[in-house]
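During the reporting period the student researcher (J.K.) took over the structure-prediction task from the postdoctoral fellow and processed the backlog of single-chain submissions. One of the processed entries is reproduced below for the supervisory committee.
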Amino acid sequence: MKLGFIGLGIMGKPMAKNLLKAGYELNICDINEEAVKEVEQAGGVACGTSKEVAQGSDIIFTMLPNSPHVKTVILEKDGVLEGMKPGTIVVDMSSIDPNVSIELEKAVAAAGGRMIDAPVSGGEPKAIDATLSFMCGGEQEVFDQVKPILEKMGASVVLVGPVGSGNMTKLANQIIVAVNIAALSEALVLAAKSGVNPENVYKAIRGGLAGSTVMDAKAPMMLDRNFNPGFRIELHIKDLTNAMNASQAVDMELPMTEKVLEMMKILAEEGMGKCDHSAVLRYYEEQESVEVKR
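J.K. obtained the following structure tokens:
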């Protein structure tokens, strides 16, 4: 069985390398030539187009920034559909609009293939050590075929419903992460402004009910003033925007999501869009003229 992998960015590159480590044959494609060369050196077979990847692959994985990129790679000229064989499975691991996932699945099915959406959570560190969480939407039969492969890149692989459910679950995940980061930022700035050591606050509360994976991942970065991504603010803006679009489709308000999205947009306008989302701390620091540090 030959696999294809399209999208060798901050997440996709280590994920592709983990598939190669697991012994899979892997056709690869990306607009970043340096990333392609790096994965090629690890054993991947470089392809010039998504069509070429599809022609030589039984299962194709895509890991791309947003809905338009996935639609281009799958639907447009020299895309996956032009080269795909009947029976091919497409696994889109990108975090995109759930409605686009449904649209793409219909197009893949019309061309004789099958598709699931399988966005991930965990960021670059978990992509590197193959402990990502996969949230999958699709048919049970298709999921059962790709699950063993996804398990080479992640520690948790869960089918949550039909196509589109994976990305709806990812949006829920991104809302929770964003609001957690904002609450953590707010609390640490309050502590610092009140004259209480924020590092001691973190140490005191991390083992209690307030403790979380988000806190343990992001509080040390905040205290070290380390805002290197990780997961970029500009990508979280994309996810929260997709969440707002999804909420409008079901006539629901997301007040906390909307507020954190506003904070992130302000930081992006100030040139921090490529910073880790832990830099939401800077929004509160700027408001209160306080700096959180060890």
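The committee noted the following: The mean pLDDT is 96.
J.K. will present the remaining backlog at the next meeting.
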